[in-house]
Design goal:
The complex is a heterotetramer, with 2 copies of chain A (270 residues) and 2 copies of chain C (308 residues). Chain A is of the alpha/beta class and 270 residues long. Chain A has a domain of 88 residues: Translation factors (Elongation Factor Tu (Ef-tu), domain 3). Chain A is 16% helix and 31% strand. Chain A contains 5 helices and 16 strands. In chain A, the strands form 3 sheets. Chain A has a 7-stranded antiparallel sheet with strand order 4-3-7-1-2-6-5. A 7-stranded mixed sheet of chain A has the order 11-10-9-8-12-13-16, sandwiched between helices. In chain A, strands 14-15 form a two-stranded antiparallel ribbon. By secondary structure, chain C is α/β, with parallel strands linked by helices. Chain C has one domain: Alpha-Beta Barrel (TIM Barrel), CATH 3.20.20. Chain C is built from 9 helices and 16 strands. In chain C, strands 3-4-7-8-9-10-15-16 form an 8-stranded parallel β-barrel, surrounded by 6 helices. Chain C has a 4-stranded antiparallel sheet with strand order 5-6-14-11, with no helix packed on it. In chain C, a hairpin with a 2-residue loop joins strand 5 and strand 6. In chain C, helix 2 packs parallel to helix 3 and helix 6 crosses helix 8. Classes of the chains: A alpha/beta (270), C alpha/beta (308). Chains in contact: A-D, B-C, C-D. The interface between C and D is large, with 48 and 48 residues. Bound molecules: flavin-adenine dinucleotide (2 copies), flavin mononucleotide (2 copies) and FE2/S2 (inorganic) cluster (2 copies). The site of one FE2/S2 (inorganic) cluster has 13 residues of chain B, from loops.
Amino acid sequence: MNGGKGMHCMKRDYDVVVVQRRVIAPQHVELIVESPDLASAQPGQFAHVLTPGMLRRPISFSRIDRAHGQVGLIVQSVGIGTEWLCNRQAGDRLNVLGPLGRGFSPPEAGQPWALVGGGVGIPPLYAALQAWQNTVHVPQVVVILGARAAAYLIMADDFGRLGVEVRTATDDGSAGQHGTVLSAVTEWMGVHREGQMMACGPTAMLQAVYQVTANWSGRTQLALEQRMGCGIGACLACVVATRSPGTHGSQYQRVCTEGPVFDREELVFS
Amino acid sequence: MNGGKGMHCMKRDYDVVVVQRRVIAPQHVELIVESPDLASAQPGQFAHVLTPGMLRRPISFSRIDRAHGQVGLIVQSVGIGTEWLCNRQAGDRLNVLGPLGRGFSPPEAGQPWALVGGGVGIPPLYAALQAWQNTVHVPQVVVILGARAAAYLIMADDFGRLGVEVRTATDDGSAGQHGTVLSAVTEWMGVHREGQMMACGPTAMLQAVYQVTANWSGRTQLALEQRMGCGIGACLACVVATRSPGTHGSQYQRVCTEGPVFDREELVFS
Amino acid sequence: MNLGVNLPRGLVLKNPIVAASGTFGFGPEYSSYVDVDALGGIAVKGISPDPWPGNPPPRVWETPAGLLNSIGLQNPGVDAFIQEDIPFLNSVKTVVIANIIGHTVDEYRHVAQRLQREPRIDALEVNISCPNIKEGGMSFGSDPDQAFAVMHAVREVTDKPVMVKVSPNVAEPWVIAQSVVAAGADMVSAINTVIGMAIDLKARRPALGGVTGGLSGPALKPIAVRMVYEIARRVGVPVIGMGGIQSAEDVLEFLMAGAKAVMVGTITFQHPTRMVEIIRELPSVLQRYGFASLDEATGAALAGGVAL
Amino acid sequence: MNLGVNLPRGLVLKNPIVAASGTFGFGPEYSSYVDVDALGGIAVKGISPDPWPGNPPPRVWETPAGLLNSIGLQNPGVDAFIQEDIPFLNSVKTVVIANIIGHTVDEYRHVAQRLQREPRIDALEVNISCPNIKEGGMSFGSDPDQAFAVMHAVREVTDKPVMVKVSPNVAEPWVIAQSVVAAGADMVSAINTVIGMAIDLKARRPALGGVTGGLSGPALKPIAVRMVYEIARRVGVPVIGMGGIQSAEDVLEFLMAGAKAVMVGTITFQHPTRMVEIIRELPSVLQRYGFASLDEATGAALAGGVAL
Ligand SMILES: Cc1cc2nc3c(=O)[nH]c(=O)nc-3n(C[C@H](O)[C@H](O)[C@H](O)COP(=O)(O)OP(=O)(O)OC[C@H]3O[C@@H](n4cnc5c(N)ncnc54)[C@H](O)[C@@H]3O)c2cc1C
Ligand SMILES: Cc1cc2nc3c(=O)[nH]c(=O)nc-3n(C[C@H](O)[C@H](O)[C@H](O)COP(=O)(O)OP(=O)(O)OC[C@H]3O[C@@H](n4cnc5c(N)ncnc54)[C@H](O)[C@@H]3O)c2cc1C
Ligand SMILES: Cc1cc2nc3c(=O)[nH]c(=O)nc-3n(C[C@H](O)[C@H](O)[C@H](O)COP(=O)(O)O)c2cc1C
Ligand SMILES: Cc1cc2nc3c(=O)[nH]c(=O)nc-3n(C[C@H](O)[C@H](O)[C@H](O)COP(=O)(O)O)c2cc1C
Ligand code: FES
Ligand code: FES
């Protein structure tokens, strides 16, 4: 079609089949979809999923099973699009674009590693741990999970089965520490002056992590959410303020293309 | 609720259940719905049916079975609303307003009676014949049906089973007379200088019937279609030009309220 | 929660949901489908001095999440309205707002004067989207001076509460709103329909008998919310917002943009009882978003860092 | 069926479907999802003399059948565009239209002049919805004289085909269209987005970082069709129509309202390949409605009894 232009290996939107659906928490559903294409994703990347709304919905991968060509999507029902997604059943098809965006950079060997997740920010951290736990040797791994209440501490068991230390915090104290992930994060940074952190969750949580890591000498990667249009870099809807200029002439970079994962030093986060 | 105002016997929109669905011609589906309320309808009245569009869709009754509290709706798929309706299955619910509008006046005893229908204008004529064949004594009944082609001559068998004379015409000559219902109508008027006619069908057909009955001394009732908003008389969307003023100060009357059935003498039809 | 709304000149709505003019007839049509008395009020169809015939059909056409209409303000004239419709309206236990229209300033004045003597009419809504036949057919609503003249004439002959309904088909509807307030309008209602058009592909002609028509329904909502926002922060009088309301959340959106009450139109065609459902749900929706009263909600999105 | 469209100054589109400015980036972004060469053309994002930062996020919000955006014309400036984006565009085998923006007449002239020397740019689209910073921030598109001044300045420095993109946020966009044609515009493109707004109920503030935004998508279609109709019958130059196109039927609707070609924007976000599908389906849709060519369809709903 684009003969002669080597750069044009045509991607496109495509259909994938839901092979399994399970309710994992109130208003939270995990869909396992079959798709070798999506299963080529890096942890932290996302699929842009067609729903009945005007725009597609960005959803991260909760697990990436390259061997079986399957990925997981954990969806929290918060509006028309996610409600529709949560109602999909095994056998249904989803139309997707992806995998999209820049995922997490792999952890560095030899450095302690903290994965800090809140709400539906937890799934991509699981995908990250799954991908790199056995390929990168790190001396210590801790997973710090936060949620409103015990019922919403999604994937805690999955992490447990990977044999890593899991600390939890809930707003209402119904499981783990009473409060946010912040105290566990601070405590961990106190012990590990060097190290690496990957965080994903609600903007308020990421802002707090951004603040407390200000004087920490480790590396912090934050996976952001932003309202998106195209999902592929064309519309400049999904921007976040950054220190170095992105493309298109401003201090803004695109969450869908340069992100969703940014190094904290890149961001201007208030 | 409206205590004291005797006029306010509250109607409302309500759900009815589809008990049977059958494909009766290409793109034509008959839905039998259970509803004693709808089954109180007069032939020629309609239900205003909720579909995924902005507005409801007006659909006439193809049969009215008061005894069993059931009515039939024959729907031709011509757009988003009717396509959705044609896809309803037994067990599904429809939300309706109705029965609405002014149906056919019953035939007068002693006068020969012609029912002239085209396309999805045929169903209300069947309801009329069913209602009055055994209650009003008329000396002669003829049913004249037109359609694009043989496959679209809906309900011809149903009429046949009522034991009346059925003449048919198709645009392509694949059944009955080649051409429109007009020649059968003219022929019948030639034989019956007095009599009564009820016609329902596409606007072009009704206009032709309107023309050819201009000097006929019988009574002609025409059931019209018009784009509707509310369906209950409030929005003045569904008007047709008439000789005598309707309500609301113009020569227009409302198809949903004063109609859909009008005496030809009422109409200014060009 | 108290849903009452106090408006100028002693006009009190029992709740902020009013049926929009032209979508609720003259009252009786929907009265067997909706408990009219439960509504905050009803605005009847536009009324002119003499009968207006309206436009040739077809008069409605659907568009994505919207409705085009070219009814053309068909109405029986003010005398027939008083004689034939007020008797029914006398039995209604809620606020009745007469929507008035005219082709000249004198026609508006005439209708307002006739209705001044009718106690059943609680307020007037001056629809200035009509073409001014003396001034070449441009609508009264597209020129601040003409809008002023209409409102000024109406104010001379009535002491009833008066709202002027502004048209969105101008660059700066708030200038019109400011002008009618200067002329004595007690309130502003916003917005009327946006002019639109559709083609009937099969018929190869404009879909509406009136060629162009007015767009209403959910498609309009973002345009309407913006107009309410722009007007509310510029005029010192209550704004009645409308355009595409389907739910109690939509009502809250208009309140937060600056409206004191709302009108609901097109959705009634789909769901005759939706207005009553909205009234029922409104207290819990307000609470869900942290508002203890209607007044707290009104204008809530204008405060806090939004530059005027 | 031949889908080619001949436009002024030798501009030829292989088909009437052009990607709308701001929805297709600078070309490369969608190039791995769509066969860009199959399109009639692409209009790149608005380009100013210097980089513009754009508005703070959030920059998009969904509305019923519509999309609000407040991107704020973020772009790297004409120099970066020429250096970084033209190389890719050189590999594209279809028409490239540069959308140009500025805060003063001189800024528009500057961008047009810089691009005059770029053979890859086949045509200019002058976006006059930008605020005029010298004249108090009102957009160039809301005043016929200012619109004239912009087009006049552009015409002085370029002999490329130029279309002016009119804004629907004025009472009479056709007056603006007539004015820019008088100033030398070869074509008119219509319409840009309608200003709208939404409230984020949970956040209790306007949903967009820019407070108000531009409404695009299917909700807009009836407004856009009407504008194209009003403009096409008043200006003697080709009109490129747009606003809410989702299907080949929608394209036909714009053609029948008077457009010679169309642009397609928001729907691409949902379906990147929709434009290519429309191109494939267009011949059979034209035939289904009885048209043997594009030209037969253009303006078909204007003829036959529609009073001007
Ligand atoms: C990179 C990325 C990854 C994400 N991964 C997940 C995930 O794995 N699981 C999950 O449940 N959610 C995830 N989200 C959030 C998810 O996309 C939103 O919850 C969803 O778009 C809401 O759509 P809705 O129709 O249900 O809500 P509505 O509020 O009806 O949506 C209206 C519009 O706002 C947008 N929107 C609303 N909330 C958000 C949000 N938080 N972020 C971005 N856009 C939003 C929607 O896309 C839509 O365009 C992710 C978001 C991003 C940006
Ligand atoms: C009193 C009355 C009785 C009817 N009875 C039947 C019947 O028994 N069976 C049947 O199949 N059809 C009947 N029709 C026609 C039917 O209502 C239309 O075919 C239907 O509304 C088309 O909707 P759509 O969404 O499929 O088409 P679209 O073209 O997508 O509809 C768009 C809009 O136009 C309106 N519309 C389109 N065509 C017509 C039409 N011919 N008449 C009125 N409005 C129209 C729709 O209601 C809708 O608002 C009747 C119409 C009227 C007025
Ligand atoms: C069929 C119809 C008729 C209308 N007639 C009038 C009218 O007579 N006077 C008026 O001021 N507005 C009239 N309107 C406008 C509505 O009152 C309202 O401003 C508009 O429809 C937006 O609200 P909605 O989206 O809730 O319908 C009419 C609207 C419709 C749909
Ligand atoms: C995200 C976005 C960005 C846009 N940016 C521009 C722009 O830079 N220049 C311009 O002239 N129009 C811009 N537009 C308007 C579109 O080109 C088009 O006029 C409008 O979106 C209507 O078409 P649609 O409904 O098919 O999207 C933009 C629209 C969107 C949705
Ligand atoms: S969503 Fe369009 S650029 Fe990111
Ligand atoms: S459809 Fe509203 S009056 Fe007939």
